[in-house]
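debug: dumping io for the single-chain case to check the tokenizer round-trip. Nothing else runs in this session.
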Amino acid sequence: MTLTIPIFRLKRLARKYAREARIPLHSALDQIAQNEGFRSWSQLAEWHESIASPKYLLSQLTNGGLHLLAARPGHGKTLLGLELLLAAIEGGRRGYFFTLEYTPADVLQRLKTLGVNPVSLGEDFILDTSDDICADHIIQTCFSAPTDSIVVVDYLQLLDQQRYKPPLNHQLKALKKWAQGSRMTVVLISQIDRKFETSMDRHPGPEDIRLPNPLNLGLFETGCFLHEGEVRIQQLD
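debug: decoded output
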């Protein structure tokens, strides 16, 4: 089941409907929920919370594969990537966060935004902000990691930005082979092309991934597309 529009827009519709129909807001919310196929707003909200939670998203990402987490700037893809790591760590796994975009201070601030004291994570959270980040660097860094670890890379389009690094498609093939052999869960955060903003689509998909260089999206098992607070999961392989 999917919503016809993001949940925050449904709330706006309910407020408008309540004003126009001069009915209590809770009655308007229930009516909107029923139009979406739910018995009540509380049932819709409970369903939405369950599918939007990092724990649910993590459960959809298989070990031994590559997964995309994609969104336009400002839609929370980095925060969601960190939340995936935190959910994995809570479940007793180790999390690795590789970023070519942010400084250590930036990442630690985002963890605090999520209500997490970075010190409390101990050795279960590994942060790498090296300029050398690429497939080989990731594989070497995670050489002795437990097999159920999760790796989040921020972000895909920067992996081959420096000319001395291998082409992006070559790196992804190496990461996929390594993930399959090590049974790691590897998530690559990705940008959505700005042309999506002028499209008629309500939610981005694989065709909206920004690809400055040729890339075989079939190397990924799953695509998680985030837009306006709503996450959609799609099989890509």
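debug: round-trip ok. The chain is about 40% helix and 15% strand.
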